[in-house]
Amino acid sequence: MHLHDLSVKKIRQGLMEKKFSAFEIARAFLDYAEEKNKDIGAYLRLTENLALEEANRVDIALAEGKNPGALAGVPLAVKDNILIEGELATAASKILENYRAAYDATVVKKLKATGAALLGKTNMDEFAMGSSTENSAFQLTKNPGDLERVPGGSSGGSAAAVAANMAIGALGSDTGGSIRQPAGFCGVVGLKPTYGAVSRYGLMAMASSLDQIGVFAKTVEDAAILFKEIAGHDPLDATGVETEYGGELLNPTLEQARSLRVGVPKEYFVAGMENEVAAAMDSAITSLKSLKLEFKEISLPHTKYALSCYYIIMPAEVSANLARFDGIRYGEVGGVSRAGLSLFDLYKQNRGRGFGAEAKRRIILGTFILSAGYYDAYYAKAQKVRSLIKNDFNEAFKEVDVILTPVSPTVAFKIGEKVNDPLAMYLSDIFTIPVNLAGLPAVSVPVRKSGLPVGFQLIGKRFREADILAVGRFYEKIFENR
Questions:
Q1: What average pLDDT is seen over the chain?
Q2: Which residues of 435-447 are buried (b: 16+ CB within 10 A; e: fewer)?
Q3: Residues 79, 109, 110, 192: which is the catalytic one?
């Protein structure tokens, strides 16, 4: 059994034909992940008992002739800011080092119901703040394609786990590109759904108007299957939207893909993009044109303000959301004596020791933005700009159905290369941030080429994940038999 050959469909087919058991699959992935993780650092911890218990349930259901679920026996990884009942959930932060989740996130509950084997919790930038997974308080994650390079962030552990065949798929969260950028850097598929399409209940909030849970997979088809299982309205999430995803999501036709007009925004193809990325974009567009898709140049004029807008709205929401983490309620940070300390000083010491540099930077910046006298000057103005960015997409989608852009202006950079330059790091997400501001779905698809991975991004209309997945699926089919 070669792990790199397995997909969601192949695992289900193998189980039904009794080529292997769910327990054998889970055991094989756990053993491989334990060994491979020594080099990659994708997992913060494996949840062996959980995975094997679920695998046993699947095998019992199969033996009794029952339908074990759409993801029966499929080994999946979960980002460490998504709750699994009874398991540690640290968000890669010292302040939550000993916190165990009291309940399952809705997406986790859905995965368990489908028979998936949850292998472990993956590394990330602390509280999802970063673009390289170098901000984790616990360990460094390396890019499986080049161990001297970053896997991207903040969901770098999930992307690396899938790229290194340590999981068939994985859950991540995307606030400004945290699924698509690491997917692009690691050469896997990363889907950020429409805001409201997937429940965020049980996701540790970073920036509530931007956060969205999504999936990583090795193929667009697997990403579609995983998304279908976690999507849907949840009464526990006030931002969720009632919507149904039909058969076109899983079984697109070439005619469906050819009916879509693809827009290419001129603002995304500018100086500053690495030559390797530019060449990969040309290759992807040429391949898609061979499918007889129609392309049209479009304009998203307010794109140039997206990064500035994001870095006002996001830290403001970070400041509010992270106020609950005082280092006391969720577990005292070691080494702090309470003797003679006022409540304020106790909070100050616990939070000071519990949060890393990037988390502190964003909390302080957000608190400043929301302070008296600055709210209107910064936050309120940024929200107005956000409306302009949304309107740009609305106007563009009157002419086209799907928008194609790069995922990142660079390939994966060297570990340590940008860690001391926050502004350079923030620019890694310049092409992904506008999507979150507008609440749209987008997927990163690997460009088929040699060398370091490069991803291209397909952006769709709200709740039209089927469109971007169809285009990505037929792009993959061009290379399927080569």
A1: 94
A2: bbbbbbbbbbbbb
A3: 79
